[in-house]
Amino acid sequence: MKKHKQLSGKKLIAFILLGSLLMCPTVYATSHFIKTQDQVNSRFSKIFIFLASGHINRKNFDKAEDLLAKAVKYDPENVKAYKNLAMLYEGLNKLDQAEINYKKVLKLDKKNREVNYYLGLILDQQGKTDEALTYLNKAASLMPYNAFIYYDIGVVYAKLNNYKQSVEFSQKAVELKPDFAEAYNNLCYGLANSGNAQNALPACQKALTLKEDSAPILDSVGYVHFCIGEYQKALEYYQKALSIDPSIGEIYFHIAQAQEKLGKTEDAIKNYKKYLELDPEAYNIKDVKVLIKKLGKKKSS
């Protein structure tokens, strides 16, 4: 029988110590320094974040969510964990959960530029426009040379029918980024709705030069022509927009308006109905239904 070689006393003690170091979670085997529990928890939190990123890449979102939840449990002050969790929820369209976690980030880091911006955007998506503007303006103060933030603020103001402010922020966006087609489009639309349609045309044309196949931009150009009484020209731009993207309900509404002005009553009724079909929760649904009835009576008389 083969005899096992016995360890010397010194070697035995060394192995016992090494085993203790490897088994004890509060000590690094390669370090002479004992780690505090907070440091260990922070390390575990970082590991969970790392593992979660792999699951996100593989689209295993449930597992990623579970790991990120563990990350914040181990380290409740880990900004990256809350931020990643919020971004995951945003990607899954769980905006209320995203909002909660973005706000947790800001409790720990009030001047986090990206999170102020992201939070503003999701609050706007939830219809919390006043609160959205608070965070978006904060983001703009932290990133004063970011054209996209000014653009997004302009869009929010346009939704609130505050076109003066919309124009102001859209103008800032194009000054910072002269090739920003969408910002020129928003500027165009804001000027047109501010009773300044003639001055809106240059902004519209600039937007169209930058993106000639954009349905929203073509629609805006048509809208400006409609505002200055050029209904046939407006209709032509609307129809070009529709040929590019027939899924945008508002284009049908604009086409119907132009057709109504041109005396094409039957076509106008058809497109008003199409607009309501595509956007059954439209803000002006009651007015459009009344208008359809009115045009129907006009047609039959």
Structural description of this entry:
The chain has 16 helices and no strands. It has helices spanning 9-23, 37-57, 61-74, 79-91, 95-108, 113-125, 129-142, 147-159, 163-176, 181-193, 197-210, 215-227, 231-244, 249-261, 265-278, 285-300. It has a domain at 35-143: Tetratricopeptide repeat domain (Serine Threonine Protein Phosphatase 5, Tetratricopeptide repeat, Alpha Horseshoe), CATH 1.25.40. Residues 1-8 and 10-34 have low confidence and may be disordered. α2 (37-57) packs antiparallel against α3, α12 (215-227) packs antiparallel against α13 (231-244) and α14 runs antiparallel to α15 (265-278). With 301 residues, it is an all-alpha fold. The longest helix has 21 residues, at 37-57. It starts with 8 loop residues before the first helix and ends with a helix.
What attributes characterize this protein structure?
301 residues; 16 helices; disordered N terminus; elongated; Serine Threonine Protein Phosphatase 5, Tetratricopeptide repeat; mainly alpha
Q: Which sequence of SSEs, written as H and E, runs from N to C?
A: HHHHHHHHHHHHHHHH
Q: Major sheet: size, sense and barrel closure?
A: none
How many strand segments?
Answer: 0
Question: Strand pairing plus helix content: what structural class?
Answer: mainly alpha
CATH architecture of the domain at 35-143: Alpha Horseshoe
Under CATH at level 1, the class of the domain at 35-143 stands as Mainly Alpha
